[in-house]
Design brief:
The chain is an alpha/beta fold and 372 residues long. It has nine helices and 18 strands. It is globular, with a radius of gyration of 20 Å. The protein starts with 8 loop residues before the first strand and ends with a strand.
């Protein structure tokens, strides 16, 4: 199903809460700046919560459940911004109603759910989008083009070390569900998943992986209260592998926020080197600096991201802020819906990415290399 119209894309957001959180900080702020969208509806966990959110954000139609929202005939696009364990139910309802769907990453709680959701979308014949917005970051797109244009020559290897920001010694109030590996919102699926997707866009897909994972802090404390909680999520993830080009890749994510290196991504080639740094390992949100050197140069120099990569003028006031990459992706979604193009990752792409994460988990469990 295509939405070939010059009218605003009437959008319904599932998970928009008056208490705050990710959806109002990102989706709502981005959509409010873009011509071509109208936030028509929202769904929350109860009628009372929906009414409060509708009043707080000026959204005219407030529903007490996702099932009510997807039945609204005027909603064109359903945005799924709820916890990972709830994705499946909401997405299946939206697909059954024939709605286009944008789901936050990860698509499903594990590979099997992602495959089920992609198959359901294909059967329904509707447009789908996966919220892998790190690939929309201007710095990431610039690095992709530098590599494609031969700045580094033939890429020999890439190495990345990053802080997960969460999954350290403490957790935020309300963030307890992120400590349970079975809930699907882990350091592997969220910051590692966003980051490795961008790496693959720049340098190519993995063909094989080896991995070591560990939970080095099995007990953590809630900020403020000091109450302890068990953590089963891996807070150390070390992955090595080979890319389609033959280049060797090495990635290490550490839980929490390091006192030293928080994000450092290096690309080493026959003719040059590129380095991307940031304040944490959530590449989809981080403020990034690009540096590089070619030939006989000693040391790298900053390579400012050219203005052409900040192509969405309506987002200029939130450059280097959370809504920018989300909004840049929404601008591409709008073009895909209106022109029938396919530039934004869909559910099929999300399945391929979750297969990589599944391969990493299998490699870590077996202690051997896994072909992808």
């Amino acid at each position: 199903m295509e939405i070939r119209t010059q009218n605003p894309i009437r959008t319904g957001i599932v998970g928009l809460s008056a208490r705050g959180g990710w959806a109002p900080q990102s989706h709502l702020l981005a959509l409010a700046r873009l011509d071509g969208y109208e936030v028509l509806a929202l769904a929350a966990s109860s009628p009372g919560a929906a009414a409060a959110a509708g009043a707080a954000y000026g959204v005219p139609r407030a529903y007490g459940s996702a099932h009510e929202l997807v039945r609204d005939p005027d909603v064109d696009l359903v945005v799924v911004s709820v916890r990972v364990p709830l994705h499946r139910e909401v997405i299946l309802a939206a697909l059954a109603a024939g709605k286009a769907v944008l789901s936050e990453w990860p698509l499903g709680n594990g590979l099997a759910e992602a495959e089920e959701l992609a198959a359901a979308a294909a059967a329904a014949g509707v447009r789908t989008f996966a919220g892998l917005q790190a690939r929309s970051a201007p710095a990431v797109r610039y690095v992709r083009d530098l590599v494609a244009d031969g700045f580094a020559g033939e890429v020999l290897s890439t190495s990345l070390v990053a802080s997960g920001r969460r999954w350290g010694a403490t957790f935020e109030p309300g963030g307890r569900y992120l400590l349970d590996r079975d809930n699907g919102g882990t350091m592997l699926t969220i910051p590692f998943g966003h980051t490795v997707d961008a790496l693959a866009m720049v340098l190519g897909e993995f063909t094989e992986v080896s991995a070591t994972t560990a939970t080095r802090r099995p007990v953590v404390r809630e900020e403020g209260s000091g109450r302890t909680a068990a953590m089963t999520v891996h807070d150390q993830i070390a992955v090595s592998g080979r890319l389609t080009s033959g280049a060797v890749a090495s990635l290490h994510f550490r839980g929490g926020l390091a006192r030293a290196t928080t994000f450092h991504w290096e690309i080493n080639g026959t003719d040059g080197d590129l380095v991307v740094t940031g304040e944490h390992g959530h590449l989809q949100q981080a403020r990034l600096t690009v540096r590089g050197a070619r030939g006989a140069a000693r040391g790298t120099r900053e390579l400012p991201v050219p203005e052409r990569y900040f192509a969405v003028a309506a987002l200029d006031d939130v450059r280097d802020q959370v809504p920018y990459n989300v909004g840049a992706q929404y601008a591409d979604v709008l073009r895909d819906l209106r022109d029938g193009t396919s530039t934004v990752p869909d559910f099929g792409h999300a399945v391929r990415r979750q297969r990589l994460l599944d391969g990493i988990e299998r490699a870590a469990g077996a202690g051997s290399r896994v072909a992808l």
